[in-house]
Write a structure and sequence with these properties.
The protein is an alpha/beta fold. It has eight helices and 19 strands. A hairpin with a 4-residue loop joins strand 5 and strand 6. Helix 1 runs parallel beside helix 8 and helix 5 packs parallel to helix 6. It is elongated, with a radius of gyration of 22 Å. The chain starts with 10 loop residues before the first strand and ends in a 5-residue tail after the last helix. The relative contact order is 0.19. The structure holds flavin-adenine dinucleotide. The site of flavin-adenine dinucleotide has 41 residues, from helix 1, strand 2, helix 4 and helix 8. Flavin-adenine dinucleotide binds next to helix 1, strand 2, helix 4 and helix 8.
């Protein structure tokens, strides 16, 4: 049994959909449990546009692609593990397991599933934002706030944001809030007390030099100088495979996520989920830990349902 496949049955023990922080980590536990695991990944991790990732033990400040490559290198050293670079387009329950269809037209059967396909950010339609996203525009201050500390900073955000704006003062005392919804008077009082400026509406566009933001161009032509921008926007699962399988969803902080138990089991037997798509808060290091939990729980489930012969 090499390369993640049980040659006799043609069925792998586990298929992991999504091969980034959560998926690779889940697969590592399964491989170490001596089960055949296939990771299927289309290569679009959420932080792919960031030039560096932060807060990850032992990897602080490394490019995200380098972090993922290191994880994959460790995983693929196990003969039980295999990577398929493709998009999974469909998955259905079939017999005691699941049948997957890939965009390449290939098919795969697995006894158990780990869904680790992440979330897609739903950015506001603001000219210039896509150019700077991941370099000087982010959503999480723990990820990039330290590097941009003390610089003129903007926050583009919807309702109920005063508390977060005040919190951002931990990183900068030069902060302008561009509100995407009216800010109630009580919140304005909070902002004023914390020294947060409230802009009169949204910018028309962002000015930038390459991927570095330089300012927010307001409707009157006035420019608010910026070196950093936080965006509090929504997100959605990167695909709808959990819904197709009938997994229950729940509300996360940015959008719907897959509901899981503490052991990362979904509401569908045999299906586990981990990472951003199954956690309220996005974070690479937390996604990796979540994946380890899902991988171990999936392995225990396999051990009970499909014990090793003899
Ligand atoms: C700009 C930016 C900067 C960030 N910086 C940091 C940081 O510094 N530190 C930090 O801790 N966090 C950071 N994050 C958050 C971090 O990116 C996520 O928390 C982390 O990537 C989640 O890992 P994951 O494995 O759950 O999902 P992802 O990393 O998003 O990976 C999911 C994978 O599944 C694949 N996939 C999706 N659908 C399918 C399908 N149908 N078939 C096959 N494959 C599929 C995707 O292509 C992707 O490769 C940042 C996020 C952004 C947007």
């Amino acid at each position: 049994m090499r390369n993640g496949m049980d040659r006799e049955s043609g069925v792998v023990d586990a298929a992991v959909i999504g091969g980034s922080f959560a998926g690779v980590s889940a697969a590592l536990q399964l491989a170490r449990g001596r089960r055949q695991v296939v990771v299927i990944d289309e290569g679009q991790p959420r932080n792919r546009l960031a030039s560096a990732g932060h807060g990850f033990l032992g990897m602080d400040g490394r490019p995200p692609a380098e972090m993922r490559a290191a994880g994959l290198r460790d995983l693929l050293a196990y003969p039980e593990a295999r990577l398929i670079e493709a998009r999974v387009t469909d998955v259905v329950a079939e017999g005691p397991g699941f049948a997957l269809t890939l965009a390449t037209g290939a098919a795969l059967r697995a006894r158990r599933l780990v869904l680790a396909y992440g979330m897609r950010d739903l950015l506001p339609d603001l000219p210039g934002l896509a150019d700077i996203w991941g370099e000087t525009a982010f959503s999480c201050p723990y990820c990039h706030g330290y590097e941009l500390a003390g610089r003129p900073t903007g926050l583009l955000a919807g309702p109920g944001i005063a508390e977060f704006a005040v919190f951002l003062r931990e990183w900068t005392d030069d902060l302008t809030l561009f509100p995407m919804a009216p800010v109630p008077e009580a919140e304005q009082v909070q902002l004023r007390a914390a020294g947060v400026r409230l802009a009169d509406g949204l910018p028309l566009r962002l000015s930038h030099e390459g991927r570095r933001v330089t300012g927010a161009v307001m409707p009157g032509g006035q420019v608010v100088p910026l070196a950093a921008l936080y965006v509090k926007a929504g997100a959605e699962p990167a695909c709808d495979l959990a819904q197709r399988l009938g997994c229950a969803m729940e509300a996360g902080m940015q959008g719907p996520i897959i509901a899981t138990s503490m052991m990362k089991a979904t509401t569908v037997p045999g299906v586990f989920a981990a990472g951003d798509v199954a956690r309220p808060v996005p974070s690479a290091v937390m996604a990796a830990a979540d994946g380890a939990m899902a991988g171990a729980a999936c392995h225990r489930d396999l051990a009970q349902a499909f014990p090793r012969a003899g």
